[in-house]
Amino acid sequence: MPTLSFCIGIIGNVVSMLLLASPIRTFWKVVKKKSTGDFKGVPYITSLLSSSLWTLYGLLKPGGFLIMTVNGGGTIMQVIYITIFLIYAPREKKIKTATLAVIFDVGFLGTVFAITLLAMHKLSLRLTFLGIICAGLSIVVYASPLLVMRIVVKTKSVEYMPFSLSFFLFLNAGVWSFYSVLIKDIYMGVPNAIGFVLGSAQVILYVIYKNKSRSNRSMDVMEEDGSVHLVKQSIIEMRAYDQDGDFDDGGDKVMINDPILNRGTSLPKSSINRQYNSLKLIRTVSLGPYDVFPNWSDDAISNVKRNFYADHP
Predict the structure, then answer these.
(1) Are the C-beta atoms of 16 and 172 separated by less than 8 Å?
(2) Best exposed site among 40, 88, 250, 296 by fewest CB in 10 Å?
(3) pLDDT tens digits for 190-211?
(4) Where are the domains of the chain?
């Protein structure tokens, strides 16, 4: 009958493979566009180094089959990701990524393998040496979202912290923390415990700022649409403005208190208002006596003209 640790390890393998498969969508877009865009290759180089070392750790550790399988699969996937990245990256980025891959995934990795297998002969010493290095790398990988968490708190937006990724990081670290307790492995336990705490923090931040992000997006949309509301307000004013400077709608005075329309007044002045004022000025200058005083008779207007010229010879 399978032990509890074996069952938890199987669950950990499934969760980890789902987490490792998360960049597939990203790289599918890279292949379709034939460009890496703004993506960087450093995370995949670091993950390849970590997965490779954990694979060796699982091979050497008695009962470490499940550690070896999940990290062996991760190593293969990271190699595929880096290969695709190098194919479609621009020349400058390609050279930089390839250089880092050679330094860390060939030079550093080969050195650690050589020291572990050739310079150390006791299994306990090998596991201690590898365990410390693997734990350090895992802590770095789990600590990498700290920058994103800082951005979330600063901007009050979870736009750059996808919930699925945060949730799987939290779940993955939790499962492997439990597994490490069952098999009494401190080198797995410490980094995964730290990852569990950071993953929990990410999930909490997402819950806190999820609704605020939506309201911020709504405000952005309203600000973008402010010019449209300003146009609507200007049109209403142009249609309803009477000669006394009041709003008139068929003889009844009305006030426009729509908050959405009034929001537009806080935005930069639109050229529509300037054009409308210019049209009013031009129209006022070009008005004839019959336009200004439509109810006056010809005799009344003639008397006004006669009196004006008499006062202003």
Answers:
(1) yes
(2) 250
(3) 999 999 999 999 999 988 888 7
(4) 4-223, 232-311
